[in-house]
Amino acid sequence: xxxxxxxxxxxxxxxxxxxxxxxxxxxxxxxxxxxxxxxxxxxxxxxxxxxxxxxxxxxxxxxxxxxxxxxxxxxxxxxxxxxxxxxxxxxxxxxxxxxxxxxxxxxxxxxxxxxxxxxxxxxxxxxxxxxxxxxxxxxxxxxxxxxxxxxxxxxxxxxxxxxxxxxxxxxxxxxxxxxxxxxxxxxxxxxxxxxxxxxxxxxxxxxxxxxxxxxxxxxxxxxxxxxxxxxxxxxxxxxxxxxxxxxxxxxxxxxxxxxxxxxxxxxxxxxxxxxxxxxxxxxxxxxxxx
Length: 290
What we know:
By secondary structure, the protein is α+β, with helices and mostly antiparallel strands. 22% of the residues lie in helices and 49% in strands. The longest helix is centred in the N-terminal third of the chain and has 63 residues, at 2-64.
């Protein structure tokens, strides 16, 4: 009888230990979950603080600026110059306020310059920047200098990685099938692209032509077939003979309404035995009035 009593006590003890272990396990899981929630809450609070700081910083920056807004438009004149018509509206101005557009570029031949801006009674200052397309390429940055009496301010307006982004015609997207290289023949199927103007609207071009070059010599060309809304494609296969070591490059050329001719480098490939390797073409179009 005494033995049975001891066995019963052992069983009860083991049961209580198992219950305690289960309770401790559950409490541990709850503690981990609580710690995770606290950590998530801390991260969320820090994100909110950073967003608030960023918003306050932007508001403080905006409060300290004199430029309310600015806009521009571009065109090409008969002298083959790109004209950038600029308008800057100020938050505050005086009768004697003077404003100048300051432009700068990393291009080796043209570093920086300025254009006087004429103001009106509404605080809007306008001017036109003229850039010779035959000589100018590269990035372009705009600042404005504002003089109110003895106080001078310089504020950044914006910029572009390449002046070509201001031209009337630009390529928005393109695609093609291939390329392939079989039995000494290089080919690209149905090359297609879309043209847009500087504000992103689809644009039409004159004299659109695709052409393929091998080592810098044109070996295939065809008038581009038109799609709706500024699209053009080869309507077939562009192909030419090639061998290992040859560089093949696809181009698209056209004119805009002013007569300016654009030659867009599209894609280039190097033939290496039976493998075709993509190489990076030039990013900017070649401009001419031929």
